[in-house]
Amino acid sequence: MRRTGHVDVWKAATVVTATRLTPSGRSLVLDAPGWGGNLAGQHADVRLTAPDGYQAVRSYSIASADAGDRIEIAVDRVPDGEVSPFLVDAIEVGDQVEVRGPLGGWFVWRPEDTEPVLLIGGGSGIVPLMAMVRAHEAAGSTTPFRLVYSVRSPQDAFFADELAAATGVEVTWIYTRRAPDGWPRPAGRLVAADLQALEVTGGEAPSVFVCGPTGFVEAVADTLVAIGHDPARIKTERFGGA
């Protein structure tokens, strides 16, 4: 993958698209000259500067994974947040922010990786996993991919239409508060029985990537270990308080 510049240098980035994903979530595609591409699973720092000079910095996972200078982030509004309400409700196409990165080299998937993969996302924790799904499809990879996506309701799902059309990945939906009419699984939290029912083909134990709120990630990771997954093959990315 082509890389230019330095990850610790702030780069001006212009909003080129802003798409509503859910009532509280939005996708922003940023044009950041000199970005130079990123791996699936990496994240970026985003910096906003107010007219009075006040600055705020937040880290956001990247939903895209390619060698270009455009990156996509997806932001869920945090109640009483300082940055996310602006990115979800106020920023417009043509506005500028600053970005730094790409950051992180552990919670990543590369097309040359051949072991089966199990992705588990909670809420907006789908974002870096979406980058992996996209990278897998773009590379024409035959590596077995399975995604478990836990959301409150169908209206809270990021990238729902794209996931429905994705090839090469098997998606299991877990609705925790309200399931669609006629859904075979009642609404409720992701539990051990859900994970035990999964079959990840490929002849070997899968690499597992788990992303979401801290409590979700810790509960899922503990459950995976309890049902026999190798802790060394479980990678986690979390956000928010405990």
Summarize the structure.
It holds the Pfam family FAD_binding_6. The chain has five helices and eleven strands; from the N terminus they run βββββαββαβαβαβαβ. With 242 residues, it is of the alpha/beta class.
Characterize the structure shown.
- Helix content is 18%, strand content 33%.
- The chain has helices at residues 84-89, 126-138, 160-165, 192-196, 214-226; strands at residues 11-22, 25-31, 43-49, 55-61, 70-76, 96-103, 117-122, 145-151, 169-175, 207-213, 234-239.
- The protein is globular and about 55 Å long.
- Mean pLDDT is 93; it is low at 1-5.
- This is Ferredoxin-NADP reductase.
The parts where pLDDT drops under 50 for at least 5 residues are 1-5
The CATH topology label of the largest domain is Rossmann fold
Sheet having the most strands: 6 strands, antiparallel
Strand content: 25-35%
Number of strands: 11
Spatial order of the strands forming the largest sheet: 4-3-6-1-2-5
Radius of gyration: 18 Å
Terminal Cα separation, in Å? 36 Å
CATH architecture of the largest domain: 3-Layer(aba) Sandwich
Class derived from helix and strand content: alpha/beta
Supply the number of helical segments. 5
Oligomeric state of this protein: single chain
CATH top level assignment of the largest domain: Alpha Beta
Approximate helicity band: 10-25%
Instruction: Give the mean pLDDT.
Output: 93
Succession of helices and strands: EEEEEHEEHEHEHEHE
CATH superfamily (homologous) name of the largest domain: Nucleotide-binding domain of ferredoxin-NADP reductase (FNR) module
- Count structural domains: 2
Q: What is the 3D form?
A: globular
GO molecular function: 2 iron, 2 sulfur cluster binding; oxidoreductase activity
Protein name: Ferredoxin-NADP reductase
InterPro entries: Cbr1-like_FAD-bd_dom, FAD-bd_FR_type, FNR_nucleotide-bd, MRET, OxRdtase_FAD/NAD-bd, Riboflavin_synthase-like_b-brl
Cofactor: FAD
